[in-house]
């Protein structure tokens, strides 16, 4: 049995709708996302608020050692993405995270993962429009932050009333703007360092990475670096979004591995490279929380027009990330609906293959961000970052555990081997799990991040109670499916 046959079998068995039709979770979607669009969605998904805005707070806290934090976390992200890639090549489905949790851990875990990932993107959407409203203040501080957040939410909602092909095209150009801006910043920074032009030319030097209190220049040295890992991991959230596109990619067997294999150089260039240049051109002591280090760097260089351009770019980045959030929430709600684990009406697609109802529900809840910005305009970003981080990392945990269980089944001959095996697994996956749990512990130590851990048990209780109620009403939707393939069938693979 080939991986494609397994995909057909498990889609029928594991993603049947409440009507018993057996339709797979990707049924009805248009495969309108090509290689060029998938690549840029993968690149742009991880370049957003966490880097452009959140890095300012992290630099002020840890100094140049933030570079090391990004490098270590980036390695962990690569392990997670290769684990996801192994699962995607085994069975590419649009509801990937919840579907794999459902298969390898059980119906309850698939239910929790689907709803938690949906919540993550709703909260992230709030984060992104909050950041976007903050960027508007660069030009006009008189515009209320809540008003900008409201306008952006409405605009992005209507932007999702288009075909998936047009969505992919818009995201391609959004991502191109972000990538071009970072590369431009790096090239200008290299020019300042080597040629000495601009207002920062006299003070710009690579030695800025260690001459202002040392490389570990935070108040508590290495501890300060460790305490920024929450912010660092938040910056990488959404890198897994490429998995959600599996059901709408034209050739997922080719495009998804290519996108995943770009993770190391993406992190090396757009995170580590950009930070090395910025912190070499401008001493880390010049940065502060709540301000984009990219904008501040241009301002210190003496290019106010450049700072305005970068501010526009980071505004675009935030809106792009929120747009991706609206895209993914609609698909996740539909996957839950087709499995009988969500409201049935959310499973309907428009004639153009869009889960409009799920997107509408998600956008309406994102309006909570408008209220947050109205009530606490100064603290809105910090409030939602920690909760988004803990809910987003749940998807990573499920990916890693599902991959470990899949690998064991495949090695026993119960399932076909993936065409894109994760190198170093299971040890790399176990290391990534340990690292994530360490970050969660650090969040509990950090007074500002602890609120997310208070919210987690409440969300877990909601999930358990709702699961028991839905299971009682529709037991069939929560039955554990048999995904095992007989060894004799596996031997027929290719």
Automatic annotation (TrEMBL):
The keyword S-adenosyl-L-methionine does not apply. Keywords: Amino-acid transport, Cell membrane, Membrane, Transmembrane, Transmembrane helix, Transport. Residues 1-26 are annotated as: Disordered. It is a multi-pass membrane protein. InterPro entries: AA-permease/SLC12A_dom (IPR004841), Amino_acid_permease_CS (IPR004840). It is found in: Cell membrane. The keyword Membrane applies. Residues 1-11 have a biased composition (Basic and acidic residues). PROSITE patterns: AMINO_ACID_PERMEASE_1. Residues 38-474 form the Amino acid permease/ SLC12A domain. It holds the Pfam family AA_permease. The chain crosses the membrane at residues 40-60, 66-84, 104-126, 146-167, 179-201, 221-246, 267-286, 298-322, 354-374, 380-404, 425-445, 451-470. Belongs to the amino acid-polyamine-organocation (APC) superfamily. Amino acid transporter (AAT) (TC 2.A.3.1) family. This is L-asparagine transporter-like permease.
């Amino acid at each position: 049995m080939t991986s494609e046959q397994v995909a057909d079998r498990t889609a029928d068995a594991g993603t049947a709708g409440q009507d018993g039709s057996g339709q797979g979770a990707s049924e009805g979607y248009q495969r309108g996302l090509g290689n060029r669009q998938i690549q840029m969605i993968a690149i742009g998904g991880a370049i957003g608020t966490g880097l452009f805005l959140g890095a300012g707070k992290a630099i002020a806290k840890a100094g140049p050692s933030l570079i090391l934090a990004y490098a270590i976390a980036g390695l962990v992200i690569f392990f997670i993405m290769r684990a996801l890639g192994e699962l995607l090549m085994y069975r590419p489905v649009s509801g990937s995270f919840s579907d794999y949790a459902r298969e390898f851990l059980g119906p309850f875990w698939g239910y929790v993962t689907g709803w938690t990932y949906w919540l993550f993107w709703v909260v992230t959407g709030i984060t992104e429009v909050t950041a976007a409203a903050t960027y508007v203040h660069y030009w006009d501080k008189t515009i209320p932050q809540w008003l900008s957040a409201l306008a952006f939410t409405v605009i992005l909602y209507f932007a999702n009333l288009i075909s998936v092909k047009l969505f992919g095209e818009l995201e391609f150009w959004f991502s191109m703007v972000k990538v071009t801006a970072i590369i431009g910043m790096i090239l200008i920074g290299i020019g300042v360092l080597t040629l000495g032009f601009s207002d920062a030319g006299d003070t710009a030097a690579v030695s800025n990475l260690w001459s202002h209190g040392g490389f570990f220049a935070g108040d508590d040295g290495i501890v300060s670096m460790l305490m920024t890992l929450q912010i660092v991991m938040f910056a990488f959230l959404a890198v897994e979004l490429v998995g959600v596109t599996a059901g709408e990619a034209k050739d997922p067997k080719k495009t998804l591995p290519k996108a995943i294999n770009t993770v190391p150089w993406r992190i090396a260039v757009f995170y580590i490279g950009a930070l090395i240049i910025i912190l070499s051109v401008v001493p880390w002591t010049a940065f502060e929380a709540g301000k984009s280090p990219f904008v501040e760097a241009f301002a210190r260089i003496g290019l106010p027009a450049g700072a305005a351009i970068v501010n526009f770019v980071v505004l675009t980045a935030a809106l792009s990330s929120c747009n991706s959030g609206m895209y993914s929430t609609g698909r996740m709600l539909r996957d839950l609906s087709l499995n009988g684990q969500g409201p049935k009406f959310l499973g309907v697609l428009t004639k153009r293959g869009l889960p409009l109802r799920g997107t509408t529900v998600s956008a309406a809840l994102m309006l909570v961000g408008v209220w947050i910005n109205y009530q606490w305009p100064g603290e809105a970003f910090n409030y939602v970052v920690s909760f988004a981080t803990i809910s987003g990392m749940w998807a990573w945990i499920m990916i890693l555990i599902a991959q470990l269980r899949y690998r064991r089944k495949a090695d026993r001959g119960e399932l076909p081997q993936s065409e894109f095996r994760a190198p170093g697994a299971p040890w790399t996956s176990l290391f990534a799990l340990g690292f994530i749990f360490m970050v969660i512990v650090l969040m509990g130590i950090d007074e500002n991040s602890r609120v997310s851990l208070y919210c987690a048990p409440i969300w877990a209780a909601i999930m358990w109670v709702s699961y028991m109620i839905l299971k009682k009403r529709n037991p069939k939707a929560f039955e554990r499916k048999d995904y095992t393939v007989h060894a004799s069938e596996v031997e027929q693979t290719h």
